């Protein structure tokens, strides 16, 4: 079988706040194995941010303060090839080099996917999906601007802190948005060119049909005149 990999990216700050609210309500990722290069990370490589059964009720400050929080730069980590940096072993290479390798890998994998969309552009995402796979959804996508994340009011300092914690995701998202809009514009231009070509073909067909009708009309007039002369 042929498998097509697709994904949907979200604004990093909104995504981070949404995950915090999700964790605050008691969600955990204990079932996630985080397998890389055939093994799961050790507790030393990937410590937990909490000691109880879950992290329910944690404040946003606590969420941001945990240095092992997998919410940080989650989109880059999930799109990149972790084996390139020694998986979760942070001692394999310097942090700056590790970050560059992860970001480059995430960008390359995103670019090579069959399709990706952005939550902030629901209609454009639907349009590109339908054009890419030649499939149509039953109903149009709806752009919801009111989410759990949007209901969280944060000050500018907190905003900057979240952006700093997700600096790789921020750069990936800027790259993804630019690439996404380029693909959208290309597909729209291609659609317009195809529509123009069809209109031109239809005009040619119509002109040819009108020419045949005129020719038939002239021949019919001549025949009728000759027939009348014979009768006269």
Automatic annotation (TrEMBL):
It catalyses: alpha-D-glucosaminyl-[heparan sulfate](n) + 3'-phosphoadenylyl sulfate = 6-sulfo-alpha-D-glucosaminyl-[heparan sulfate](n) + adenosine 3',5'-bisphosphate + H(+). GO terms for molecular function: heparan sulfate 6-sulfotransferase activity. Pfam families: Sulfotransfer_2 (PF03567). It is found in: Membrane. It comes from the Eukaryota. It is a single-pass type II membrane protein. Its main location: membrane. Residues 210-232 are annotated as: Disordered. The keyword Protein transport does not apply. Keywords: Glycoprotein, Membrane, Signal-anchor, Transferase, Transmembrane, Transmembrane helix. Belongs to the sulfotransferase 6 family. PANTHER family: HEPARAN SULFATE 6-O-SULFOTRANSFERASE 3 (PTHR12812), HEPARAN-SULFATE 6-O-SULFOTRANSFERASE 2 (PTHR12812:SF6). 6-O-sulfation enzyme which catalyzes the transfer of sulfate from 3'-phosphoadenosine 5'-phosphosulfate (PAPS) to position 6 of the N-sulfoglucosamine residue (GlcNS) of heparan sulfate. This is Heparan-sulfate 6-O-sulfotransferase. It comes from Leptosomus discolor (Madagascar cuckoo roller).
